[in-house]
Amino acid sequence: MDRSTEAFGLPTFEDRPAAKVNLTLEVLGRRPDGFHELRSVFLRIGLTDRLSVSLAADSREDSLHLSGLAGSPTRDNLALLAVAALRHRFGIDLPPLAVSLDKRIPIAAGLGGGSSDCATAMRLAQACWGVKLAVDEEMELAARLGSDVPFFASDAAAARVEGRGETVTPIPVPVSETGLLLVTPPVKLSTAAVFARFDTLDELTDDANQLWPAAASLEASLAPLRELLELETRMQWLMSGSGPTLFALYPSVELAAEAGLALVEDRPADLKEAVIQAVDLVRPDPTWRYP
Ligand code: C5P
Known about the structure:
Bound molecules: cytidine-5'-monophosphate
Strand content: 25-35%
Distance between the termini: 31 Å
Shape: globular
Structural class: alpha+beta
Strand order of the largest sheet: 1-2-5-7-6
Number of helices: 9
Largest sheet: 5 strands, mixed
Number of strands: 14
């Protein structure tokens, strides 16, 4: 739950927005609004950002302080958009907020970090103002902020996610493995570009993630990377979301970390620009990471 601390008399609410991976992702069709009808199994993982929200006593507008990984948007950051959307929804004069975001989840990587920040900002902003939307109103606003936001707003450990992303059905965690090895290559893939490429491809894949051929055709280094990972680890690797992060499930985070270490020792040249992290499903930080 949120921690609330008092700094100079002003309460600060803070939490750790978690990342996700997609265990499956089916694209069922294109909708009239241009979005795609999806069916996906989302799994929350133990890799988090740090987000805090407090009343900005000496400011006339909301502010965002970013630290950690570079590359997160400042002006159109989903955490700030969440605050603005809520203020608009309540339609009353709610004071400016100071949002502080320490990025640890790789950005534009298919791990849902920005969407998770957004869902957490919605919750912390309401706590700060002492207001509360009804659950269905909150989910509806979450869906308008981004397709992955309702899953994070639901707080489920795992869920079947359908529609554009707005239909979230919590399910028991559908895997017995508790460790994951994540490999994020130094490639940015825009979700919109991957879906647009998907629309131009004729054949559906039998891959667990139907966006894989689109992502692999936009970024030529992805398929050889996946082959290398499968060859070296003798595990099945999947792409999360619209990529480019690839992941494999391990019985434990310790085994995932061992596999990661072996990878960077055996193939240093192929992986030198990738971020590799061994995580479990609940801890806030990776057990092992490279570099
Ligand atoms: O909703 P979000 O802003 O995350 O979506 C980013 C882009 O991904 C959309 O503009 C759209 O092109 C594509 N998308 C889609 N169908 C979905 C989710 C996203 O086509 N269900």
